[in-house]
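Worked Example 4.2. Consider the chain below.
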Amino acid sequence: MLIPSKIQKWLRADAFPQRVILSGDKSALDMAIEVASQLQDFPREKIEKGIHSDTILFRDTGKSFKIDWSDTAKKEGQGEYENVRGMIRWAHQKPTEGTYRIIILENLERVSHVAPHALLKLIEEPPARSVFLFTTRNHHQLLDTILSRMTVVRLAQEHRDFEVSDEIREFLDHTDLIRKFQLIEDLQKKSKDNEDKKINRTVFYDFLERTIQHARLFDQHRKHLDLLFETHQSISQNINPRFALERLAVKITS
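Applying the procedure from the previous section yields the following structure tokens:
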């Protein structure tokens, strides 16, 4: 993995910031894991599997990152530290195996509304030997109070790997609303293709983000970008993703 020169300089100088947001596509999480591996001098595959005792990885499972380890969080299978207060307790513990206590949190823009405010104190005064690596697909969706306290690293988007999708072109072009609703219905079924039969929002995020990439590349679809970003934001605020996409379909068809 090619690490940006800015990050390489921090690593070589042993001057890595304590609070970093990696902003980009899905590669941001891979980058965070790679950075943690180098900071801890520990194999990245073991960091990724959660084997390192001083590195904790909070993946975006489609469920909101909560304040407390509540009954709801337990039912959703979230662990003791997979919440803001748990994260704070964990970060204040001294490293036992590595050089740092490193917290990786995927898709910071997707945490619950109140979670960023609860994180502010920790971000303002991070414990010694702690490093926070947060990823986001769009740092502009984050609170200014969070951004002002973090070092943002923008990662290159992987447009070379982007393939033009017929279903996305149809979704943006076609005037048949029923066909658009059928596509959304297919996404809904795909999102529930799991043991719990609960909606996995990442299915909708992936579709929307591919659609945004498509709209950026083609002049005739660029006019829909504001609506696409608005829909992405709505889903991140826990609006029903199917409803949000259906509303989008109606607006771009009218």
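The longest strand covers residues 130-136. The first helix runs from residue 5 to 12. Compare this with Example 4.1 before moving on.
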